[in-house]
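Morning!

As promised:
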Amino acid sequence: MNKIYINGLGCISTQKTFDTLFLEESAVNEVDTILSIHQPVYKEFISPVASRRMAKGVKNGIVASTLALREAQLETVDAIITGTGMGCIEDSEKFLKAILDNNEEFLTPTSFIQSTHNTVGGQIALGLQCKAYNLTYVNGSISFESALFDAKMMMEENDASSVLVGGIDETADYTMSLFRLAGFIKNENQGLDSFLKSTTKGVVFGEGATFFVVEKEKKATSIAAVLDVEILNALEIDKIENKIGSFLASNNLKFIDIDAVVLGYNGDMDSDAYYKILSEVTFANTPQVYYKHLSGEYDTASAFGLWVGTKIIQTQSIPDIVKINTIDKETYKTILLYNQRNGIDHSFTLISSC
Amino acid sequence: MEALKQELKSKIIEVLNLEDITVADINDEDALFGDGLGLDSIDALELIVMLDKDYGIKLVDPKEGKTIFKSIEVMADYIAKNRVK
């Protein structure tokens, strides 16, 4: 695969990831089991007339994409590709509740219009007046990587030279109550001490919007390069090391060439078993990074993971708050990101300095 | 009639999620669409549903809305004459 270059970043998350350098104002929430967005001042990015109809996910997507475009110094792009697991679930809930409350009468248009999974991509396009390729991937925990993979293929096929790629998900009360009933969300936040050695099922849930401007050409301001992306639906736990080995080999790399590995630990004992093998054996001597103790788990949390990986390359440092081990490197050139959830939706993303 | 006008203003602010606008900011004669409150066609649909749900008034022809939703004054007058709830 050809390299593509990350030239702009924008991240709205449960941490203050805007107007900061790299997680210096972050703190682990050890109380709540559903984490909420650290809100930007939306009025600085969206007119009140437009924002009054937008749920938080749409607003966060617009702010994050605006920040990414500003950093890349671009007014528009050749494609907008988003990934989302649950889409605009807040307005979906509103619309469905209205159907039930009003006995299937008096249905209003706003929440219906805003409830689709591609609302964020559509609203960004409307704001930019961008009539180019616009697609939204809804593929569980590989929604974001599917979008990134599409962007990479578009550039390889010379269909685009600049693409806005993002992952967006939001929480909504009723859906969260169902997730809690189903055991997807922990009954109580068990704190940071037990996060990496969890003995319980379920996760602390989160939400966020993370966007990247990726371009075919390297610029003086390029932050990092995406070397390769691979997604797999299912993979047995005893095959993970081999799979990563072959993924690296296809990029002419070995385990030892990886300067840091960013793992999607989410505090669910079964899900984390996949990462533990890598932490304890495969990458035991490599700097290891985790991030979902900050962002919470959600379908596109791995976009936050890519933001963390890209920031490590940009700043050439790993903040203590995301370190799994104490191993440091003088330079961080090549970083591997691995994410999965409950043994399905595996993604491998390889990034490097430019 | 005055109470109905105040009620309408509150409902419009709530239904249309008009951030930063209070009841006191809306004059009875202000245009709701265009230069006044700046409402648009989606808002018109929301108001049609509100008329049906809260006052039992069914607008068969959505074009009627253009006249009825001219201002709070006109709207309140129409509702007072046609409401069944």
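Chain A has two domains: 4-215, 224-352.

Hope this helps with the figure draft.
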